[in-house]
Design brief:
single chain, 173 residues, mainly alpha, three-stranded antiparallel β-sheet, 5 helices, flat
Length: 173
Amino acid sequence: MPELNTPEEIRDFLRLCLNPPGRAPRTPANLAQVMPDWLYGPLHEHAPHLAALRAETERLDEAAARAHRAHAAALARWIEGTETPSAPAGVVEEQTPVQLRWGLDDIQYGDDGTTIVMLSDEERRPYWLELEPDRAAALRADLAGPDSDEQLVPYHGEHGYPEGEEPTTALHD
């Protein structure tokens, strides 16, 4: 496995994947479809916005697969004559709620004590919020609420969190 510790090493490897020696070149869209899972870890470490976009793509793919299954099931019921429509076609239009990003891996912790929160706006465009250690601790305490047992853990600059007091829960837990 190649060394993929820096953005430059990852870019070089991905360029090689786009133009593999002795093979036809790939487009970035083709590469995204065939990229192995092990490559996403190093890539997302240096490009968290790509992690947010991949998660949104996977969410939308799953929603499309559910819609296809629902359509196929409704088609089968219609063919068999067992479907009972709840309203005439076109009268009721299904509305999909806006899905904001709140799920697994939406929080990343930096080596310098910063916390990166992955979010999306109402139009599902991804963005992230990078919080300094003290702001992240205050936000964690605010989200936990006044009745929570979770205490505010101060960050001690270059020395990090005190031994055994590192944050163990993400904001979405």
